[in-house]
Amino acid sequence: MPLVAGVDSSTQSCKVVIRDAETGALVREGRAPHPDGTEVDPRAWWDALLAAVEAAGGLADVAAVAVAGQQHGMVCLDEAGEVVRPALLWNDTRSADAARDLIAEAGGGETGRRFWADAVGLVPVASFTATKLRWLARHEPEHAARVAAVCLPHDWLTWRLAGAPGLAALRTDRGDASGTGYWSPATGQYRPDLLEQAFGRVVEVPTVLGPAEQAGVLDPGVLGGAAGRPDGAAGSPVPGGDVLLGPGTGDNAAAALGVGAGPGDVVVSIGTSGTVFAVADTPAADAGGAVAGFADATGRFLPLVCTLNAARVLDSAATLLGVDLDALSELALSAPPGADGLVMVPYLEGERTPDRPTATGSVHGLTLRTATPAHLARAAVEGMLCALADGLDALVAQGATVERVILVGGGARSAAVRRIAPQVFGRPVLVPPPGEYVADGAARQAAWLALGGATPPTWAPKDTEEYAAEPVPAIRQRYAEARDHTLDRVAATGE
């Protein structure tokens, strides 16, 4: 019974799961928190990884490890492999002007957007690594001058697990490379010209591996006390002693692998960010910028829409009302569909899709009748889901087939979200049991490496619930009116 480990190094925490490679059965797990903020010293991720590994009982009895991580984060290293400055995360919007500049330099407007979509499958926004590199070059030239290599959070952690054996040993995968802005999913190649366009010069970047290629072997010395195997731990020591390192991937590609998404499935993940994505056989190139044409973790493609505002919309509404999330859900379900016309546009941290980094949230339709906790709770849930449904529409416009929606992430634990989602999405909604699907996807990749074979092992989520309801078109119609009013105001005032 070989065991494998999957790591999810997300914005908020590090999770480690140890699973049976053949069946996917969970053996043990651990977690540790990450610091808040939109820029973080990567060494905090390493410390959290060590703590999570230790909480999970160590890695001495596993055959392979793979790391999934938050996408786009800019990790800059000097010639000695030391971190140059804290990493700018995907949700750091200071590079919004840099994104606009890169589009303008490619011809501006539709011409500039089409250039980038055709070149790398995405249009620059503040989230992507290329725009962060431009910001660094313009605003911190002393740091930029020290940069010898740039990588992503999962790349850096995999490299550290291997003992940090020189910059040339940095490895990544198609899924995470496709979110940089200088690697093309369509050609499977880096675009050094675009890296130079963004940063002013070409630096070392990780080698892109195939879905089940080996990134190296675990250096047990880097784990310290976290390496050991507790008495009574399941499994047996690895023959030969080598623990293989998988290529890893970005968090969304790992989630798709973790839930076993197939044709006709669209995954909606409600976490710190909201993501809507489908597995596809051909790359996407949306010049409008709503759909990012990412690659997936199996050799195919992962057209994806991302919103900055997701589960924390629920957190904020609960805080505003002075209740916990369970009570917020009860309140939302006690109000009628459409909340009697009360609408929340949930751009609480600016927004990535649509690209409005300076936008703010707003509430529309407030009357004496709708000025109740129940109406506001319902409006918060519906507003968050409507923003994600806009992403679903964008995928359909790019050719995606949507037969059902698989709902995952922390926000899916809300009963109100589960029951209201089919009314908003207009399709059946499947909700697997709460789990760490990003970490599970990484573990499944590790199992693929450990077991060999042309495809990853089949791990079917159990006890999946299905929710169905008649669509309520008025919810999205009213939301669209409020959203467009908000976007018109932003366009007119820049605020």
UniProtKB/TrEMBL annotation:
The keyword ATP-binding applies. The keyword Transferase applies. Residues 267-449 form the Carbohydrate kinase FGGY C-terminal domain. Coiled coil: none annotated. Keywords: ATP-binding, Carbohydrate metabolism, Kinase, Nucleotide-binding, Transferase, Xylose metabolism. The record marks 8 as: Important for activity. Its EC number is 2.7.1.17. GO terms for molecular function: D-xylulokinase activity. Substrate binds at residues 71-72. Signal peptide: none annotated. It catalyses: D-xylulose + ATP = D-xylulose 5-phosphate + ADP + H(+). Pfam families: FGGY_C, FGGY_N. The active site is at residue 251. It is an enzyme of class 2 (transferase). Residues 4-221 form the Carbohydrate kinase FGGY N-terminal domain. SUPFAM superfamilies: Actin-like ATPase domain. CDD domains: ASKHA_NBD_FGGY_BaXK-like. Belongs to the FGGY kinase family. Catalyzes the phosphorylation of D-xylulose to D-xylulose 5-phosphate. This is Xylulose kinase. It comes from Micromonospora antibiotica.
